[in-house]
Amino acid sequence: MTATATEPGRAGATRDDRVASRSLAARLLSRPEVGSLIGAIVIFLLFMAVAVPFRNVANVGTILYGASTIGIMAVPVALLMIGGEFDLSAGVAATTSGLSASLIAWNLGLNVWVGVVLALVVSVAVGAFNGWLLFKTGLPSFLVTLGTFFILQGVNLGVTRLLTGNVASADISDMDGFAGAQKVFGSEFALGPVTVKITVIYWIVLTLVAAHVLLRTRAGNWIFAVGGDAAAARAVGVPVKATKIGLFMAVGFCAWLSGMHLLFQFNTVQSGEGVGKEFIFIIAAVIGGCLLTGGYGSVVGASIGALIFGMTQLGINYAGWNPDWFKTFLGVMLVLATVVNVYVKMKADRR
Amino acid sequence: MVTGTLAALVLAACSSSGGKQPAQASGAAQAGVADTPRMTIALITHAPPGDTFWDLVRKGAEAAAKKDNVDLQFQSDPDGANQANLVQSAIDKKVDGIAVTLAKPDAMKANVEKAVQGGIPVVALNGGIEDWKAMGVQGYFGQDEKIAGEAAGERLKTDGAKKALCVIQEQGHVGLEARCDGAKATFPDTEKIYVTGTDMPSVQAAITSKLQQDPAIDRVLTLGAPFALTAVKSVKDASSSAKVVTFDTNKDLVTAIKNGEVEWAVDQQPYLQGYLAVDSLWLYKVNGNTIGGGQATLTGPAFIDKTNVANVEKFAANGTR
């Protein structure tokens, strides 16, 4: 076992190739997240070369923050995609969560924490509803969650206006519990010269936990199984329904986390926010090596995808490029990252 | 014991400060109702859903509708072609008047002209100051975005600013571009940046990164109240000494001006735009009046800063400024 890694050339030559060990390099390169890692390094080097402020260590905090707000959602979305489903309601669900906490606390004059806890219930329930509807109707999750996406957009606006008479939640920064909740969801601390926002910590912890669950636990095997072939998984006793509904609820939980950040970072939540973010989460997961068909992918990759997105978005500003072309640069960067990803995977598979 | 704990929990759950105030008035100026016959007016805008600025336009229009005994049908779609369809559906419904924003004039032209030719009085508001006359629209209520931008630039100059960053939250929006261009015309050292308006954390990170990239920037000029409040956080993140100034206001922004977090705001009085648009159609229907004498009726720019914020504050608390 240990020797094979150091003798790459000869391994597998004389034995049955199904049980042959592959070289360390080949094994590394065939990991789904490797392509995105190389893409991230390329983009990092590019901006290091062209953007002076990008080289300033103190600015790392800004880039990590940009990446973390995407990454917190990209991680559960990647898990869900590996499990073979989409969630198009993930972006507006975060807005729903922030609005719920704020409106409940403000409208009833409750401690902000009560709103926070009830918002968690709402968010996880939205996830469970998505999963339930998926199995009840038998429709593709693309359609089911597209429905939820529109429903939540309307609810966000309608309920906010109904309760406050305005289209943004009222400022709750003067209410009991706000200061404490802000420490938990919207604070920051200095790590040497870098100001780290708390979302970065959540992002890293979520990535580690999700990666562990996916690669080291039975639940992780179930996720790969239901995404690869749900019927076969069911036949060998994998609880398909519970696994998928659980994944939707995980997305709900993370939507709650980002919703709380939205609320406690900005004190109010605009009811029209979050539209369009769902695709960014999916893109981050795809850059990170998730297949659109399910059954294959990585949460670490999705986090690297979020990092690529954060670096590109802010790197363009740091480089001071003509802002008219911002979206074009963004698109080209993303395509490049994905192409590198696919190329590396292809090379690795051939070995 | 259990009930005691429960009661304590329930008490602890209540907030001792803030929250909804029971005496909160619904806003709109209170007045009598006209005894003219009930009429239907469609207000068709390019507002994205859930935007605080457009909420003020709508509240102004609703206040006028209430006083004038008008059945107000508020509709909006940010997409030009869809907004034009809304005009067509208003024609189909045979409404008594149409108030419309012309932010995307080319898309709107055909249907607006159809309404005018069909004998439905049309007024324009907020956007389209260059185009409303050619379409046969009988009045315009709004500000000239270019003039407003120039006024902001002048103000930056008198404030002694060195370099300004103009934050555009919606790419390809002519009104927002005109504001930045206007500011650039009178304050040449103005740079543009595009951000995704529907994603606040990314707005914050984008402005922060720009301030880190260019420490010479000492003013951040945002084009909407929520973005000004976010820019305040970016300035702090970037440890920049830049000051934040903005177009348009809302309740929280008025508080921010009072606290000194935001220096000033260019106010175009959205409530007034909605109010005048509906009221002018009513006047035309019941008395044949038109407003503006063939010229645009400007509702701005006016500046709100520390010197006059107290006056605006009491109305902002009602959600009407």
Automatic annotation (TrEMBL), chain A:
Q: How is this protein situated with respect to the membrane?
A: Multi-pass membrane protein
Q: Name one GO molecular function term.
A: transmembrane transporter activity
> Is Transmembrane given among the entry's keywords?
yes
Q: Which UniProt keywords apply?
A: Cell inner membrane, Cell membrane, Membrane, Sugar transport, Transmembrane, Transmembrane helix, Transport
Pfam families the UniProt entry points to: BPD_transp_2 (PF02653)
Q: One cellular component GO annotation, for this chain's record?
A: plasma membrane
Q: Which domain of life is it from?
A: Bacteria
Q: Which InterPro entries match?
A: ABC_transp_permease
Question: Where is the protein found, in the record's own terms?
Answer: Cell membrane
Q: What is its main location?
A: membrane
Q: Does the keyword Transmembrane helix apply?
A: yes
Residues spanning the membrane? 34-54, 60-81, 112-135, 142-163, 194-215, 246-267, 279-305, 325-344
CDD domains from the entry? TM_PBP1_transp_AraH_like
Role noted for this protein:
Part of the binding-protein-dependent transport system for D-xylose. Probably responsible for the translocation of the substrate across the membrane.
Task: Write the protein's name.
Answer: Xylose transport system permease protein XylH
The organism that produces this protein has a lineage beginning with:
Bacteria, Bacillati, Actinomycetota, Actinomycetes, Streptosporangiales
Automatic annotation (TrEMBL), chain B:
In terms of one coarse class, where is the protein primarily found? other
Name-wise, this protein is Sugar ABC transporter substrate-binding protein
- A GO CC term? outer membrane-bounded periplasmic space
Which cellular compartments is it found in?
Cell envelope
Q: What InterPro entries does UniProt report for this protein, alphabetically?
A: Bact_Solute-Bind_Prot2, Peripla_BP_I, SBP_2_dom
| Any Pfam family hit | Peripla_BP_4
Q: Domain Periplasmic binding protein: where? A: 42-284
- Source superkingdom: Bacteria
The molecular function GO annotations come to: carbohydrate binding
Q: Which family does it belong to?
A: Belongs to the bacterial solute-binding protein 2 family.
